[in-house]
TrEMBL record:
Transmembrane parts of this sequence: 13-30
Keyword terms: Membrane, Transmembrane, Transmembrane helix
Record's protein name: Glutamate synthase domain-containing protein 2
PANTHER family reported in the protein's UniProt record: ARCHAEAL-TYPE GLUTAMATE SYNTHASE [NADPH]
Source lineage: Bacteria, Pseudomonadati, Bacteroidota, Flavobacteriia, Flavobacteriales
Family: Belongs to the glutamate synthase family.
Residues annotated as domain Glutamate synthase: 142-465
Organism domain of life: Bacteria
């Protein structure tokens, strides 16, 4: 024995290296059949797989130029990071964008900008920009809700995001007066940190589910009664990244806690069905909206990605006929994000936001229904100039998902579907989540929202307006093509939005339904 040990000890370090390489070569050639390259080129073949795996990081850090990457390029990410940290988010020497490029937009400035009068609410708070419409006002719901912020956290469930991320976001919206959409996974304790909540459910009915997987009105009522932070309810029909696909939560992310909240099994993929059990046609959807609103008193809306319009036309016809309908509609763009989706869905199914929203808005415009609905947009709109375009097209609020994730530290590693998110944002791994300092990250989200609103307001003032709701389709110009160099949105998309009733900012500030105040001001 001691002789064997002596022989092993006598082998120099390079001898060990040689032995390892020989063993790997034997394994590559004789014992593995799954990788042809390693078989045909033992040892060196491994380099290919390793280089391929670090390729995205290498390109992101060293190769890609500032405006090259998708979904969000370095300049966009940098703007969010700097805004969230209240650092210098300016750029020097002028734009690095090709401002003659196809689809580039221009916000038209006024000859003389809007001057904020002394004593004006925005002279005191430069970040105060609430929604100009009240959810549930037209339909006379018992608990109308005016979102206090025009930028809010979009649907992302506890499950696709970590507990630490959800908690940081909820605390962040509380600090910045925004609302937090729960996403499909139900209402967890991490959503109850003081922020206004929009409770969202999809085909899985997580949190409001009967044992056989249908919608439970009893649970819905109880949830709302027990949680006054819920200000509105959103029924998800589809989302831009995977319309008609149903939710996918990979088994790797299903911990005991998650399984308990959702009523599912640990470690098993959770696939929400593609379609709803609670309704089978538009009339039944409309009835469900009315029933939920009646039972809970809250405004009820729907979220969808836009493709074919015939069923939306049917909804609008029914709204016209019955005088009822959703209090808000969230329109998601095909460029929207997700925790996990097949690439063919994410890349090709449903229209990009501008095409989807403009088509849908026209459906309601044609029937003079637009003033009955609060329109919410989502799909990479978390940048002030993009938001100006969206407001000009008719939105009243925007929701942001990935921009909110970045504000709390997401580095766009694009591994939300693997449970290996290095930033601890989209994972259930306890060690990775520990990296999130919740108080700090909640400040960052709040600061991003406040910086966004301040800059958006500055752009609004530059255009001569007091509130972004005053933007019209003629205020934004769009590069089209060589013959027709640049057109207004009104001419490119063929409509003008309905004028949003607006007197002044002070009126919005004094509104009894503003943000979290509405619970003290119900009509019950
Ligand atoms: C991690 C993650 C999870 C999401 N989960 C949901 C969800 O549960 N329900 C839903 O309707 N949309 C979900 N979305 C879509 C977002 O709410 C949003 O509509 C979309 O990402 C567009 O916004 P963005 O461009 O600001 O990210 C999710 C997006 C991400 C990135």
């Amino acid at each position: 024995m001691s002789q064997i040990l002596d022989t092993l000890q006598a082998i120099p370090w390079w001898g060990w290296l040689l032995i390892i390489l020989v063993l790997v070569s034997i394994r590559d050639i004789f014992f593995q059949r799954s990788h042809t390259i390693s078989h045909n080129f033992p040892i060196v073949g491994h380099l290919r797989y390793w280089l391929e795996s670090i390729g995205p990081e290498m390109r992101q850090y060293f190769v890609a130029n500032n405006r090259e990457e998708l979904p969000f390029n370095r300049i966009e990410r940098g703007w969010i990071y700097a805004s969230a940290k209240k650092e210098n988010n300016y750029e020097g020497f002028g734009t690095d964008r090709d401002i003659y490029a196809h689809q580039h937009i221009f916000v038209k400035n006024q000859m003389m900008a809007y001057k904020v009068p002394e004593g004006h609410i925005n002279a005191i708070d430069k970040t105060f920009v609430p929604c100009a419409k009240v959810m549930g006002a037209y339909n006379n719901r018992r608990k109308p809700f005016r979102p206090k912020s025009i930028i809010n956290v979009s649907a992302m469930s506890f499950g696709s995001l970590s507990a630490a991320a959800i908690e940081a976001m909820n605390k962040g919206v509380a600090k910045s007066g925004a609302y937090h959409n729960t996403g499909e996974g139900g209402l967890s304790s991490y959503h109850k940190q003081g922020g206004d909540v929009i409770f969202h459910f999809g085909t899985g009915y997580f949190g409001v589910r009967t044992p056989d997987g249908n919608f439970s009105m009893e649970k819905m009522k109880r949830l709302v009664e027990e949680n006054p932070s819920i200000k509105a309810i959103e029924i998800k029909l589809s989302q831009g990244a995977k319309p008609g696909k149903g939710g996918v939560l990979p088994g790797a992310k299903i911990t005991q806690e998650l399984a308990d909240i959702r009523g599912v099994e640990v470690g098993k993929d959770v696939l929400s069905p593609a379609t709803h059990k609670a309704f089978n046609n538009i009339a039944e959807l409309l009835q469900l909206i009315e029933d939920i609103a009646e039972e809970t008193g809250l405004p009820v809306g729907i979220k969808g990605a836009i493709g074919k319009l015939d069923q939306w036309e049917e909804l609008a016809d029914l709204m016209e006929k019955t005088g009822k309908g959703p209090d808000f509609i969230t329109v998601d763009g095909g460029e929207g994000g997700t925790g996990a989706a097949p690439p063919s869905f994410a890349d090709h199914v449903s229209l990009p936001w501008v095409y989807g929203f403009s088509s849908l808005y026209k459906v309601f415009l044609k029937r003079k229904l637009t003033d009955r609905i609060v329109f919410i947009g989502s799909g990479k709109l978390g940048f002030p100039a993009k938001a100006a375009m969206a407001f000009a097209m008719g939105v009243d609020c925007i929701n942001v998902a990935r921009e909110a994730m970045m504000s709390i530290g997401c580095i766009q590693a694009q591994v939300c579907h693997t449970n290996r998110c290095p930033a601890g944002v989209a994972t259930q791994n306890k060690w990775l989540q520990k990296g999130i300092d919740i108080p700090l990250k909640s400040d960052r989200l709040a600061q991003y929202f406040m910086t966004f609103r301040k800059e958006f307001l500055e752009i609004t003032h530059a255009s001569g307006y007091e509130h972004p709701c005053q933007y019209t389709m003629d205020d934004i110009q769009l590069n089209v093509d060589d013959n027709d160099l640049s057109r207004s949105l009104a001419s490119a998309y063929g409509y003008n939005k309905t004028k949003v009733p607006f007197e002044n900012m002070q009126k919005l500030y004094d509104c009894i339904y503003l943000g979290g105040k509405h619970c003290e001001n119900t009509k019950e």
